[in-house]
Amino acid sequence: QFPFGRRLPCDIYWHGVSFHDNDIFSGQVNKFPGMTEMVRKITLSRAVRTMQDLFPLEYNFYPRSWILPEEFPLFVAEVRMMKDSDPSWRPTFIVKPDGGCQGDGIYLIKDPSDIRLTGSIQSRPAVVQEYICKPLLVDKLKFDIRLYVLLKSLEPLEIYIAKDGLSRFCTEPYQEPTLKNLHQVFMHLTNYSLNIHSGNFIHSDSANTGSKRTFSSILCRLSSRGADVKKLWSDIISLVIKTIIALTPELKVYYQSDIPAGKPGPTCFQILGFDILLMKNLKPMLLEVNANPSMRIEHEQELSPGVFENVPSPVDEEVKVAVIRDTLRLVDPQKKKR
């Protein structure tokens, strides 16, 4: 550890946030240049939609989306057209600010004319998506999956997916969105950083109960109900690979401008957090990709109003320690020498 930035040649450089370092000439660094920019909501949406235009059937794992403010007229026109052709269609939309994280600024609307949207659209670029109204529920609760993906190299493209991830639960029983319940974030939004503030949040030491569980515990439950868990995994793997393929062309441009071919420079790898929602029919849908997924293995517990302490979280530890350990094994510079 070099808290004051001492520079000695290392095998592996582990940065906190993003890749911006012109002093690294060797070894491997745990961030790709441009990755933080590429997985922002608008850029990711653009990249995936470009592929949707080319391969609509291959990229049907991403909800219909529009980029605001530039596509607002298109959004209004398309929604009106779809409603005209199917009067029974009662959509809900989810608005996600481009720079937001941890659920910040996300809200649901029923109609493009919603005052919250029209009021903030110019000042806050965002992606608006069709909201998935029929998610898979466990214990009557909506949840999403955080999967950890190691992008080990761009050329050749080398991707590893961790065998286990986290399932993060809402803290109020799910109901399909109506005008009355649109604002109930603990029912509709799975973000851990929102639900932790709910009185119903359950910190559990067990992997298969509580508001944060292992993904493998969910797979066990599904399997015991007769679900085809093998197919589910292969659909998830396919979603991850296709998403990274959509990002690759621009990532290569960033890479070549920061680390030109033929010049000394580090090689890169990066752990990404994929947020995936399962629909009722077990089809995985991509919600977003996180360039800097939290690797904390403790959680905050509120002892009294405004007073928090950090408590070990066995579920986080079980999943994340394995992710870091296997990542270091995969990029181990000693491996070639042995």
Automatic annotation (TrEMBL):
GO biological process: microtubule cytoskeleton organization
GO CC term (a single one): ciliary basal body
Keyword Cell membrane: no
Record's keyword terms, sorted: ATP-binding, Ligase, Nucleotide-binding
Stored InterPro entries: TTL/TTLL_fam
PROSITE patterns cross-referenced by the UniProt entry: TTL
Transferase recorded as keyword: no
UniProt cross-references to Gene3D superfamilies, sorted A to Z: ATP-grasp fold, B domain (3.30.470.20)
Pfam family, one: TTL
One GO MF term attached to the UniProt entry: ATP binding
Name of the protein this chain belongs to: Tubulin polyglutamylase TTLL11
Organism of origin: Leptosomus discolor (Madagascar cuckoo roller)
